[in-house]
Amino acid sequence: MEALLELVEQLPALLAGARSALVRDWDSLTLDRALEWARYFQHLHDRFRTRPRLREVLGRRLRRAQLSPSLGFPHLGRCPQLLGLALLENRALPPTACRCLLRSLLQPSGAEAGPEPHSLALLARRKAASRLLALPSSPPLSPADMEPQLQAEAQLLLGRLREEGQEAESAGEAAGRPRWFSAVLEQLPTPRVFEVVAAALLGQGNGAERAGGGGLAGNSLDGNRASATGEECVAGPLLSWLVGNQERFSAFCLFLPGSLLASLAGHYSQLSRPYLDLLAGCGSHLLYDPLQGRWVKSCPDKAVLSWEELRERFTCLYQGSAVLRGQTQAALKLLKAHDGDFQVCGLSVWTDLLTEVEECLRKDAEC
Description:
Elements: H1 2-8, H2 11-18, H3 28-48, H4 52-64, H5 73-77, H6 79-88, H7 95-106, H8 120-133, H9 147-170, H10 181-186, H11 190-212, H12 221-243, H13 246-255, H14 258-267, H15 269-283, E1 286-289, E2 294-297, H16 307-318, H17 322-338, H18 349-366
Antiparallel strand pairs: 1-2
């Protein structure tokens, strides 16, 4: 028994090694040995899980073998997945060993496939699939080349959020932001995470439209149910993550194109008002230059959008849904009124914006 306990004490070292730079020397044979050890620990869990006294002894020995008491007896049963996740997050793992690991996680043996739909094994396989998509044979030539990977990442995020929501609903709990959510998003590079979140929100919004037949604001029972489920279980955490931090939301809006933001604002009312407020703040930092006959940035450090960019974004909002167009028009008229309700060009940026946007749309309609 003591020899068995000494073996169990090696689990923290195995997981620590998988997270360290030591894996850069691993080949496929070393990886296979590590996975065999992980499966052995899983076997011990299955063998002793019905014996409370032995479970306690093994758990106590695990806690004694590490500085942090995060590992316990239940982790023995998930050891292959814990090892796989640690290795997938380690950039030092050589490509050959990484490919072997991906095959192992994506095509597990029948004995490893558990019945739980929300098991760690499922998460490990999804992460493996995402990692596989992130290994192109050559650098992408254009943004379009990244589209399949972007959609895959967004769908992985949506799927995980739906599972969390369904799990909370079945347990009679209120849906909220999962604990892992922010940590996962913050691991992505800043520009990339905005694209993934936008794609996920659009995918969720389009899915609700197909389910309800009338969009997120559909009148049918099924449409309302789909809307509520999407908002509470999936869109809710994404929107809270965005609008809950003003600096993050500003970066999100300034990075993405106006047409995409108009589509998002049309789907989600939680985004339209903050987005309009952001554009209003950008417009307040424009100054009319009579020598050039146009609006220019009064302070380059604060005025992040030029007159042309601001006009393009308001035009995109006008071209959205009837509700979004009415909201945008009302916002511009209110800003114009607060600025003195001038009718002469060059006195108020809001007068000129409202005039130019509506004139541009009128000409497009005539054509």
